[in-house]
Structures are given as structure tokens and as C-alpha cells.
Amino acid sequence: MDKVVATALEAVADVPDGASLAVGGFGLSGVPGVLIHALYERGVTAVSVVSNNCGAMESGLAVLLAAGRIARVTGSYIGGNKEFARQYLSGELEVELIPQGTLAERLRAGGAGIPAFYTPAGVGTQVAEGGLPWRYDGEGGVALASPPKEVREFDGTEYVLEHAIRTDYALVRAAKGDRHGNLVFNRSSRNFNPLAAMAGRITIAEVEELVEPGEIDPDAVHLPGIFVQRVVALTPEQAADKKIEQRTVSAPATKERVNG
């Protein structure tokens, strides 16, 4: 089955307002920016996003966030995204912060058909006991807090019950993909993209390099095409457009330092 769609706009044409989206990427690595921008161009709003973070440097999900198009975020990291922090603290945005490993497993479980699982992460904290601020009231108070979760003991250790995540759509970016939707991810972009793709009922992948079926060694496939419904081939310019969140350079070596 050829899953290639001509344009990103066509690929996201049926995403409605209020949809839930699992979005791949780790920091600025492997972020499906072309598909996100297509949603922005369509004017889609009030979406609920599940992603490790919510974009940065006016790229990725930050495009939708800055436009007020995101209603809820389930993620692990706010980082240096000042607009994310502002909207959260002002009560404009509902945010569920959870441990990063738990987020990864909730996405994977959703794709694997596992409804829930027990994990020791968060036991003895507000993650399990409830009370984490999901939404502020804009005046410093908490308008909506997380509920308590079930905790059980197994072999003398306590574990908290976490529910799997399934979303209406998933948006991911792959280094390489074929027309059947088999995908290969590059390095740290593999952290969340395969898991987000598994969690989506309709998964759309933008690929930097589109190849024909059979050109990817089956042993090299990171995500099989069964999880992918649509593929968008990026232009060379789009594939090369990769942001760097923080540039760190060493101080130039002085003669004294070189000579010891």
C-alpha cells in the first residue's frame, strides 16, 4: 500500500479542532515541524498535545503554542520555553507533567494495546498521591489538580498505576521511510518518535528521505509501517532545516594554556 501523501497540508486536512495529538521529538531533534506548521496554516485550534516538550525557539510545537492553539499538554519538560511557562502559570494552558520514562511507557503501552501498567516512578510523591497543579487560576491558586492514583505492593515494593495513552493523531519525523510507512530514525530523534507513532490512531510521518519498499533492510526498521497511515516526503530544504537550541563553545586556547 502506497501511503505517500503529496503535501503536508493534505496529510493533516482531516485533523479537527480539539483533536488529541502525540508529537515526536526530543528537544529540537526529530520534531515534525513541517506537519506542525501545516496544522498552523489550517488554523486548527484547541488541540491536546502529548509530547516530551512543547517546542522552543519559535519552532516545533512552539508555533501552535504562541498562537494560542494548544489547550492541554501532557509532557515531561518545560525547559527554557518561557511562553509555555507563562501560559501554564497564568491559567491559559492545562499541563500534566509526568516522569519522562512514564510518558514513554504510557505511549508505548497505548500502541501495544496494554491499557495500564504499574511503575515505581512517582511513588511517595504527588505523582501518585495527587495534587499536582494541572491548571492555575491566574492568581496564584490551583484551579485543577491531579487526582490520586492507585498504588499497590508487589514483592514488598510499592508501584503506582499508570494508564496508557492513545491519541487521535500522531505526528512524527523520520530520517528515512518507504512508501509502506516503514521508518528509520536518527539517533536521539528515536527517543520519542516511535512511541508517539505507536500511540496515534492515525499516524502521519514526515520523512527526510523517501525510498522504495525493499530499500530499507528489515533489520534496520525502527518502526514498522503497520503503525503509519500517511507519509510526507520532505524537500531537501525542509530536511536540512534543523535548529540548534543551545550553542556551546569552548574558550579559545591561550599560549599559556597550550604550553601548560
Automatic annotation (TrEMBL):
Highest rank taxon of the organism: Bacteria
Short name of one Pfam family: CoA_trans
Gene Ontology terms, MF aspect: CoA-transferase activity
Keywords for this protein: Transferase
Keyword Ribonucleoprotein listed: no
InterPro entries given in the database record: 3-oxoacid_CoA-transf_A, CoA_trans_fam_I, CoA_transf_BS, NagB/RpiA_transferase-like
Family: Belongs to the 3-oxoacid CoA-transferase subunit A family.
PANTHER family registered for this protein in UniProt: ACETATE COA-TRANSFERASE SUBUNIT ALPHA (PTHR13707:SF60), KETOACID-COENZYME A TRANSFERASE (PTHR13707)
Protein name: CoA transferase subunit A
Species name: Streptomyces phaeoluteigriseus
